[in-house]
Structure of ABC transporter permease:
Amino acid sequence: MSRALPVLTVILAIILVWYVAAVGLNAAWVRDQAARAGEVLDARQLVERSLSQERPVLPAPHQVAKGLWDGVAGQKITSKRSLVWHGWITLSATLAGFAIGALAGVLLAVGIVHSRVMDLSVMPWAIASQTVPILAIAPMVIVVFASMGVTGLMPKAMISAWLSFFPVLVGMVKGLRTPDAMQMDLMRSWNASPAQVFWRLRLPSALPYLFASLKVAVAAALVGTIVGELPAGATAGLGARLLSGSYYGQTIQIWAALFAAAALAAALVAVIGAIEKATLQRMGLAR
């Protein structure tokens, strides 16, 4: 209870501020409609109508919660109006991109740690790759893959991998370099081979860094997938829900899709956290 109280306090404060902001942003339209109809509204009517618009500038929390509930539980999961169906489309591309990005990040990190040439040549390019806005890269990736006849999951997965490989690369390079000179000398005194040094010293030392970077990478992969769904004009996925909501001014649909994406990211991070806890406990590295 002592841990939950501060969290609940912050949530209640956010909801209160959200309601105040919703009334402030939506009231102008209500006043305009009342003036056209020759009505005079009191404060209670102004608040009620501001919080019950079909297409508000800022939906109230209860409107977003209803939109989220309708999208998750109010539709068949096979329906194209279901957030579960759209979430699965986004999740499948996210997992594919995350797997590609994580594998690339680990392999590059191993190469950089063991090769001075790769350290000097690859690392600067890896850093430079993240300075290019993903919104500029995404359309080019979609066009290039489409010209080769590849559409659907793979272009989105590659954009997702582009964002997710870098946190893994940085985390693994830091982790693999964690063993100090004394530990390395000790392994040499035991005549350990480079493979034994890697598997028995470097890799266990890098695991805490790897899992921390994987949590960042999976969230970045989800963002990359959603960004990849926007220029493709996709009709499926949470990005498509955001896009269609913006086309038709359905702000409640946009916010419901945003919360669905946030819940999906939280679930993915929680899964990696559970795997981290089990792995580190099994290896005796848990703190």
Observations:
- The mean pLDDT is 89.
- The chain is about 80% helix and 0% strand.
